[in-house]
Amino acid sequence: MRRLLSREGIGVSLVVLAAAALLLAWAAPNDVTLAGTSKVVYLHGALVWTSLLTLTAAGVAGLAALVAMRFKRDNVMHAWTLALGRTGLIFWAAYIPVSLLASRMAWNAVFLAEPRYTTAFRVLAAGIIVQVMVWLVNRPIVSSGLHAVLAGAIWELLLTTPSLLHPNNPILRSTPSIQFFFGLIVLACGVAALQVARLMLGLAPRARISE
After folding, report:
1. Does a structural domain hold residue 131?
2. pTM of the full predicted structure?
3. Which domain holds residue 20?
4. How far apart, in whole angstroms, are the C-alpha atoms of residue 175 and residue 182?
5. CA nearest to 82, candidates 135, 17, 154, 42
6. How far apart are CA 176 and CA 178, in angstroms?
7. Does 208 reside within a domain?
8. 211 in a domain, yes or no?
9. pLDDT tens series, the chain, 211 aa
10. Quick check: is 80 in a domain?
11. The total number of structural domains that make up the chain
């Protein structure tokens, strides 16, 4: 068990999870319209949901950290906020080039005028700004609050962003078999995100936070 919790164990698990996600995408049935492009689209969607859920978890952890700071200085939730926030940003940055590739394969071009691309780059920029501010200010109450605000801003952007070419909720309108495989890919990516966050946490069970 300790080997699985070590840095080497986490590294091995990430390789296995990445291979599993790729194999699941390869084995998943093709969409009738997208044909072979479906494989890349599945990975694109899985990365989006993984990064979105991870950044949301960072925001929730940030709120919990703010509450905990009122009662004690030893705040492990703040450490998880930072780890999840950085992990979510990494997955979001990885999603963008995969999305561009999927766009190129599906539409034979990259339409940067698509509002969802604009939102994707805005979220990336906001995430980077938050990480820079966290590094510069270096105060738990500020960094936890920023992650909570970022999570709310991301959802506000996503819920209000229109779509020109990108279909709305394509997976929900897909066949059960596609939904099943997509769910497994998201699960593999989600576990990988958790492992990355644990790696960033430094494998420490608790984090001493001094204000």
Report:
1. yes
2. 0.85
3. 2-200
4. 11
5. 135
6. 5
7. no
8. no
9. 445 556 677 878 889 999 999 999 888 887 666 676 778 888 988 999 999 999 999 999 999 999 888 877 667 889 999 999 999 999 999 999 888 887 777 666 666 667 788 888 999 999 999 999 999 988 889 999 999 999 999 999 888 877 655 666 666 666 788 889 899 999 999 999 999 999 888 744 444 444 4
10. yes
11. 1
